[in-house]
Inverse folding.
């Protein structure tokens, strides 16, 4: 009888992003493995060369003897480490947004505004190489930061950035999904209606209930249906079998999520081709 085949062990390589997690506290560092580089922590020093070629999940120690584990980062870990100048949308909300907007490989989605690019990163990760994210931002400095963040993870080729005020409308049409993260989303529902295909997926996030009320009124006025308002709370538990209980703190209110579907109207103008069908990623320069 032949012996069962042994599968090769996956190992780290130069250029890989590594989540180096401290064994006791579970605090971690995200580093890109670079020959000759060194990570300095308050627990000691670790040379990148010692990490290259290790099986994922290996334990290493600093020069002071503190143990760390070598793990591949998750999308949630990447988003938590996004360089930011404004508050980002939390991973707990992003996961639900991806599901409700039906985002997956090949999807084309509009977002406004870009901010620091956390949601942009999640969209770009989800749509794959065949999808496209159209990201609108008014501030050049914020767009530059988002570009840097996307490029850091190798996802910038999936995003077309527009430096443009959405009050002037979106450049894409007949797009299946659109998300607003702006202070007054109710002011742009006509522009959303023009860009989003009938029956498509609309979402928005606002921090207060009076903003929700204004948005609900605008959605009703402009022929949206199947409206949903949700708030996602996240509570962790201490993972100790003998005394399992909730942790002392929880991730509570971060914002209200609103989702809706634009319904077909008899006076609906003929849909224009999605700009993505005629525009390549390399043509996605900022639009004034």
């Amino acid at each position: 009888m032949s012996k069962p085949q042994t599968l090769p062990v996956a190992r780290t390589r130069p250029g890989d992003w590594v989540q180096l997690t401290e064994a006791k506290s579970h605090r971690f560092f995200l580093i890109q493995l670079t020959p000759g580089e060194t990570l300095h922590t308050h627990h000691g020093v670790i040379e990148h060369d010692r990490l290259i070629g290790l099986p994922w999940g290996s334990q290493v120690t600093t020069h002071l003897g503190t143990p760390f584990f070598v793990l591949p980062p998750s999308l949630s870990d990447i988003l938590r480490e996004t360089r930011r100048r404004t508050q980002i949308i939390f991973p707990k909300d992003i996961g639900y947004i991806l599901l409700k907007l039906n985002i997956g490989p090949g999807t084309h989605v509009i977002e406004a505004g870009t901010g620091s690019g956390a949601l942009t990163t999640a969209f770009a990760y989800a749509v794959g190489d065949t999808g496209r994210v159209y990201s609108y931002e008014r501030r050049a400095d914020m767009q530059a930061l988002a570009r840097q963040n996307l490029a850091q993870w190798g996802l910038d080729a999936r995003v077309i950035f527009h430096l443009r005020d959405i009050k002037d409308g979106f450049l894409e049409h007949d797009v299946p999904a659109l998300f607003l993260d702006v202070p007054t989303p109710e002011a742009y529902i006509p522009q959303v209606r023009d860009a989003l295909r009938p029956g498509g997926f609309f979402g928005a996030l606002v921090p207060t209930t009076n903003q929700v009320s204004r948005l609900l009124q605008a959605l009703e006025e402009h022929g949206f249906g199947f409206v949903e308002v949700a708030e996602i709370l996240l509570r962790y538990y201490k993972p100790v079998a003998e005394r399992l209980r909730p942790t002392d703190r929880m991730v509570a209110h971060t914002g209200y999520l609103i989702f809706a579907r634009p319904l077909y109207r008899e006076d609906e103008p003929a849909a224009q081709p999605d700009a993505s069908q005629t525009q390549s990623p390399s043509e996605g320069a900022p639009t004034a």
